[in-house]
Amino acid sequence: MSHLERIKKMMTGEIPGAPVAQVLGFKVVEAEEGRVVIEIEASERLHNPMGTLHGGILGDIADAAMGLSFISTLAEDELFTTVELKLNFLKPIFESKLRAEGQIIKKGGTIGLLECHIYDEKKSLVAHSTSTCMVLKGNSNHKRERKV
């Protein structure tokens, strides 16, 4: 099964999402090669001590949308790792359904540049993120292996 097929099965619920998606409650709602959209209900349960959505949640959904966008283009024996992530916070969030739209800007043989726009339910831009990902070749078990 290709990475994109696996993402689409997560989207339909045929297979579970990543553990972090289950913990935070975000879901893949759109997936095509090089583009993935994630949604999450931002509520008080995800607030920081100041009473707004914790910035790390925006980082998590941006990283997930961009990472899934990148892996959707990889061969079955390839994985990836994020080597850089940048996030601009543009407005505070209290409660809203958020939509993280990740897509590839440029992909080479080893490195990819991605971006993510995160919108609130009023379609107002909440955050913008970019990421650099690196292809890891020769892994057919679909998981990174722990080196001891």
Walk me through what this model shows:
This protein has 148 residues and is of the alpha+beta class. Helix content is 22%, strand content 41%. Strands 1-2-4-5-6-3 form a six-stranded antiparallel beta sheet. The model has no long low-confidence stretch (mean pLDDT 94).
SSE topology:
Elements: H1 3-12, H2 19-24, E1 27-32, E2 35-42, H3 55-71, E3 78-89, E4 96-107, E5 111-119, E6 125-137
Antiparallel strand pairs: 1-2, 2-4, 3-6, 4-5, 5-6
Keywords, separated by commas or semicolons:
3 helices; 148 residues; 41% strand; alpha+beta; single chain; 6-stranded antiparallel β-sheet; 22% helix
Globally, the shape reads: globular
Average residue pLDDT: 94
Say how many strands there are: 6
> N- to C-terminal separation?
29 Å
Computed structural class? alpha+beta
Number of helices: 3
The share of residues in extended strands comes to 35-45%
* Spatial arrangement of strands, main beta sheet: 1-2-4-5-6-3
Unreliable residue runs: none
What is the rounded Rg? 15 Å
Q: Please provide the ordered H/E string of secondary-structure elements.
A: HHEEHEEEE
Oligomer: single chain
* Largest sheet, strands/sense/barrel: 6 strands, antiparallel
**Helical amount among residues, as a percent range?**
10-25%
In brief, what are we looking at here?
By secondary structure, this protein is an alpha+beta fold. The longest helix has 17 residues, at 55-71. It contains 3 helices and 6 strands, in the order ααββαββββ.
